[in-house]
Automatic annotation (TrEMBL), chain A:
Pfam family, one: PAC4
InterPro entries on file: PAC4 (IPR032157)
GO term, biological process aspect, one: proteasome assembly
Protein name: Proteasome assembly chaperone 4
Source species, domain of life: Eukaryota
From TrEMBL, chain B:
Organism: Brassica carinata (Ethiopian mustard)
Protein name: Proteasome assembly chaperone 3
InterPro entries (alphabetical): Proteasome_assmbl_chp_3, Psm_Assembly_Chaperone
Gene Ontology biological process: proteasome assembly
Domain of life the protein comes from: Eukaryota
Length: 153, 123
């Protein structure tokens, strides 16, 4: 019986857990480059449009609220030593931060640098939260997220 | 994909080969901006913003600036200037957001990118 037990232990020890650092499999997936996904979600009387452009080392996202305006542009990335996420406003949006929170949380989920353009009006946290939820769900569907989030919350 | 037909933002994606580097280009046309992404490195690289100024003089003037990334590469600014010049003759009110993530910034590469973008333009 001990030998069987030992055998089982051996085989378990040999099972390799899939390497979670190999995020999103960008080696096997996007060697052929850029992928663009566009989709629209309608709820209540609000139309949210999403455009996700997946580059090998970055994701660009545009969120449109009831219009096709470009909106404010934010860049977010994880900073190396402590894995915290920094976000900055690149175009517009200096006095309101609509979208910067979304960008930051996307980096945590996706593990890649994010460039986010968002024209959601300010003072609308519910709308922001809804947009973020839909976006994250879509990112998971498309396989762009890391299996474990960047930072344990 | 009837979604793509109804989506308010039109986009076009293509790639070209210059000097042995594969450049992926995506052009998107928003309501109030044109976005052009040209990447060889798999990232957006340097982002520039260019727009035509409303002015009184006959000659158009343009404002081009780097908003993210390398600020010491005049060729990138020249590229944005060339493109906004072209865009503004078709849609004068749309500024350009240009993202260049390139391995080489030689003028041949940039000229080819500009030519390809103009050939495949969405404006």
């Amino acid at each position: 019986m001990e030998t069987e037990y030992d055998q089982v232990l051996h085989s378990v020890a040999q099972v390799k857990i899939a390497d979670q650092i190999n995020d999103s499999g960008d080696v096997n997936r996007d060697e052929d480059g850029v992928k663009v996904s566009c989709f629209t979600e309608v709820f209540d009387d609000v139309t949210l449009q999403f455009q996700i452009i997946r580059l090998t080392k970055q994701i660009y996202v545009w969120i449109g609220y009831n219009s096709a305006k470009f909106g404010n542009l934010y860049a977010a990335a994880s900073t190396r030593p402590s894995n915290t996420v920094s976000v900055t406003s690149v175009l517009g949006g200096t006095s309101d931060n609509t979208g910067s929170g979304i960008a930051r949380r996307l980096v945590m989920k996706a593990g890649l640098n994010i460039i986010l353009a968002c024209n959601i009006p300010k003072n609308n946290p519910l709308l922001e939260a809804k947009a973020e939820k839909m976006l994250i769900r879509k990112l998971i569907d498309l396989g762009y997220t890391m299996p474990t989030p960047l930072r344990a919350t | 994909m009837d979604d793509a037909a109804n989506f308010p933002v039109r986009h076009r994606k293509f790639s070209l080969e210059t000097k042995g580097n594969k450049t992926e280009i995506v052009i998107c046309s928003y309501e109030d901006h044109i976005l052009v992404i040209a990447t060889q490195i798999g990232a957006m690289g340097t982002i520039l913003h260019a727009r035509k100024e409303e002015g009184m003089s006959v000659e158009p003037t343009f404002s081009v600036s780097v908003i993210f990334g390398k600020r010491d590469e005049p060729m990138l600014i020249a590229t944005a200037r060339r493109l906004i010049d072209h865009i503004s003759s078709f849609v004068p009110s749309k500024p350009l957001v240009l993202s260049l993530g390139l391995k080489d910034h030689s003028s041949e590469t940039l000229k080819e990118i500009v030519a390809a973008v103009i050939d495949n333009r969405l404006w």
